[in-house]
Structure formats: C-alpha cells, structure tokens
Amino acid sequence: xxxxxxxxxxxxxxxxxxxxxxxxxxxxxxxxxxxxxxxxxxxxxxxxxxxxxxxxxxxxxxxxxxxxxxxxxxxxxxxxxxxxxxxxxxxxxxxxxxxxxxxxxxxxxxxxxxxxxxxxxxxxxxxxxxxxxxxxxxxxxxxxxxxxxx
Length: 150
Description:
Blueprint: H1 2-9, H2 13-147
C-alpha cells in the first residue's frame, strides 16, 4: 500500500519521461525542417557570396586601390615639389642673410678703421694741444720767474 501511494504521489518519473519523449519528438520534427531550411539558405548565401559578390568586391577594391594609389603618388610628387621649392626658398633666404651679414661685417670693419683713424687724429690733436699747453705753461713760468723778485 505505502509503496503504491508513494509511487503515485511522489514518483513522477514515468510521467516526466513520457513528456520528455513527446517534447523531444515534437521538437525534432518541427525544428528539424526549420533548421534544414536555415542551413540550406546559409549554404545558398555562402555560394552566391563566393561566386558573385566576392569577385565583384575584389574587382572594385582592386580598381579603387589602383586609383587611390595613383592619387597618392600624385600627392606625393606634389609634396616633393613643394618641399624642393621650400628648400630652395630657404637656401635663397639663407644666402641673402649671409650676404647681408657679410655686408654688415664689411661696414663694421670700415667703421672700425674710420674710428681708428679718427682716434689717431684726436690723439694727435690732444698731443699737440698738450705740447702747446706745456709750452704755454713753461712760458708763463718764465714770465713768473721774471716777476718773482717783487
């Protein structure tokens, strides 16, 4: 009695196993065809992609890459020409600057020579003035010696 009551009330394995078998059977039947259709569609899509889309993409990419490569070469050539022009302009500017600097150096040297000659003139005038003053003071001393007996 107790074993039968226990199996009826608490042991649901036979019922659950039957439900599981029914569910698996229904799932496999209904789902299996859908999965086959999905797999078939995927196979067709992959085939079409490999046969048609991929070659078109490769050709378009090849054409576009050639065009981009040509444009990049043209841009590179233009940049190279600009760099050469800038280099020439900088060189010309440096040459002008160097010429100006040499000119300033020449002017400075000329100025310094002129200053040397003026300094020599001033020194000579100063020496002559000193000699005149010495003569004048020596004459004044002689005159003063004449008047010293007073």
